[in-house]
Amino acid sequence: MATVLDAKEQYELAINAARLPVWEYDIPNNRVTGNVHWHRALGYQLTESQATMRSETWLSGIHPDDIAGFEHVFSSDIADSTGFFETEFRMQTADGTYKWLLDRGRVVERDATGAPLRVVGISVDIDARKRSEEALRHSELRLRSVIEAAPVPFALNDDQGNVTFLNSKCVNTFGYLISDIPTLADWWLHAYPDPAYRQWVKETWAGRLERALQTNGPFEAMEVIIRCKDGSDRTVLAYAAPLAGEATPDHLVILLDVTEQRILEQKILTAVSHEQHRIGMDLHDGLGQQLTGLSLMLAALARSVQSGDQLSSSRELEALATLAGECVATTRAIAHGLSPIESGPGNFERALRRLADSTQKTTSLSVTLSLIDLSQLDLEQPVAGPLFRIIQEALSNAAKHSHATQVRIRVHHVAGTLKLTVTDNGQGFYKEQVAEGLGLSIMRYRARALGGRVEIGRAKNGGTIVRCTCRIESGNDFAAAKTG
After folding, report:
1. Mean pLDDT per 10-residue run, the chain (484 residues)?
2. Which residues contact residue 430 at a Cβ distance below 8 angstroms, ignoring those fewer than 6 apart?
3. CA-to-CA distance for 315 and 301, rounded, in angstroms?
4. Does this model's pTM top 0.70?
């Protein structure tokens, strides 16, 4: 005959079958009883079906930061209308580490006044979930710290169109706080005030973002013009990337400010156009006129030959030779202006000496040269040309803007590095000239293209000093420097 189990036996059978970590708190006797599964959840290997510990011992195992939130289980607060409670805390395990638990329970017995006598609960191991949440929070904190420290404007927005974060660089560049642009709709309105342009930006942005998400590929950068809070405009390359691993992923937006680069590019294009015009005028008014004269003299010579006038023919041939020499000289002058340095050992030094000599002849500057270890240096044109132009521009600035009378050029080659210094005794410079001048911007551009740098400051004598340092070791992407 089948054995009929009473309610308590059925309860214990169900608990053990489900391996539920159950505990019971006897409040009048201040005693906590936990089953085997409850102890095993904390790392204790027990064989008996139940074990007992006092309440004080139990509380001593709770993480100090969690005691305040847990003590209400054993206080009068537990005697509410339902008697149910739920709390999360960290409990010390057998090996001394802490494990996150979720305790759920209720008051199962009260006295005549309603005060709780017995509480029963179950401890659910939530350690893995809590540690994952903590790791996620830590990861998000690190990400935001990196974004905040980045020298590039970054923003975060969620799938609901809320702007959730702007780093300091973004605020400083465009002037907007999150309170100014709490949503993407606010951003579109402020950043792109022209309705037609705003519509184009929104549609293009949405299309590129959709393609990036569908193909799992990179977002195709957009170049846009953003209206800042102060009314100025900035040219920006805008990128976007979804941040995976979140239920509602944020989108990281990178706004690379290329305003100064675009201004410099436009200035360079203008300068190139002016230079092309100047060369065209030189060819037309100089070499072109000389060649026209040469053509006319050849026609006159032909007539003299036909008439048999040998004396006239002789004089015209001499004049032709002279004019032809002038044409060659003009051609060489134009060629030197376009490419002032030929390849070969020592040519860079010779070009600098010619530059110093021509500067003294065409300006009021007295130029002193100090060239160290350049006599055998062989720089190819892609390196020599930009370095020559940097020195040439520094001399031009000294003559045109500094009102200098003396300039010293020092070029030192040591261990694969060229150090150029141009110092004048002029009136110095203004900070805005250093920041905005086209010539100075191009000098920096030329140096960066060679992996070098240009620094401009005030000389000891009150004038201006221009320094350029550039590596020219063999293997440089632009050229090799060879010493004989």
Report:
1. 54 63 84 82 67 73 83 56 79 89 85 82 89 84 79 88 90 94 94 92 89 84 92 92 63 88 74 66 61 67 70 69 68 62 78 84 85 81 82 84 87 85 80 56 79 83 86 47 36
2. none
3. 9
4. no
